[in-house]
Amino acid sequence: MMGRGFYYVMLVGDSGVGKTCLLVRFKDGAFLAGSFISTVGIDFRNKVMSIDAVKIWDTAGQERFRSVTHAYYRDAHALLLLYDVTNKASFDNIRAWLTEIHEYAQQDVVVMLLGNKADSTHDRVVKREEGEKLAKEFGVPFMETSAKSGLNVELAFTAVAKELKHRTMKEPDEPKFQLQEYVNKEVRTAGCCRS
Ligand SMILES: Nc1nc2c(ncn2[C@@H]2O[C@H](COP(=O)(O)OP(=O)(O)OP(=O)(O)O)[C@@H](O)[C@H]2O)c(=O)[nH]1
Fold first, then answer.
1. Is 37 helix (H, G, I), strand (E, B) or coil?
2. How many domains does the chain have?
3. Which of 49, 64, 120, 142 has the fewest CB atoms within 10 Å, i.e. is most exposed?
């Protein structure tokens, strides 16, 4: 499955949570203000980029195009699942997204939950602890991100890349890469001096 020399990392989550901005931020190290081109259906933005042998897709969050994106789950090696900390519905929908992932994605897919827009202190409606709790319940790593400030953006992508690379290139006696531990060690908290 991973013999093709690259991995597919797909960004999923409700419309407007910041999938494109996160990807752009990671790719260009810059935040694009204003709304970005909305991802639509079959005109699947094939924002494929090569970084550390990882290819990344960004896909639509719109309900009406779900059936289109189902097919793409199968090829994804990792999924960055986003909600928006200023949008409660996007957080509540994470359960539905996880159910969908469970149904359509490969069994060993790497999933990471991201609470995006962590820079929005005034508009925040989802606490970091709530994200942590949900992630724990589903056994997936979690961090808050900001495409605007750059908080943990690099980390989200590199942690997934490390996990995927390790799975394929691991020497037999090498210890397993601990994704959760790595994330815990490297993660920055919104508003913290270190971010
Ligand atoms: N404050 C803040 N705003 C953000 C952040 N990320 C994205 N936004 C804003 O949120 C809006 C939606 O961002 P997009 O990246 O287009 O969201 P998307 O998830 O790709 O949306 P679809 O393409 O419709 O699925 C834009 O107006 C962005 O400027 C962030 O980290 N902080």
1. coil
2. 1
3. 64
Give domain status of residue 110, yes or no.
yes
Give the integer Cα–Cα distance in Å for 6 and 19.
21
Q: Is the CB of 90 under 6 A from ligand 1?
A: no
**Which residue CA neighbors atom 21 of ligand 1 most closely?**
16
CATH assignment at residue 52? 3.40.50.300
152 CB less than 6 Å from ligand 1? no
The pLDDT tens digits for 99-115 are: 888 988 999 999 999 99
Helix (H, G, I), strand (E, B) or coil at 102: helix
In a domain, 2, yes or no: no
* 102: containing domain: 7-193
Burial profile 90-101: b = 16 or more Cβ within 10 angstroms, e = fewer: bbebbeebbebb
Is residue 55 assigned to a domain?
Answer: yes
Q: How many helices (H) and strands (E) does the chain have?
A: 7, 6
Structure tokens at 166: 């390790």
Is pTM beyond 0.95? Reply is no
Structural domain contains residue 79 = yes
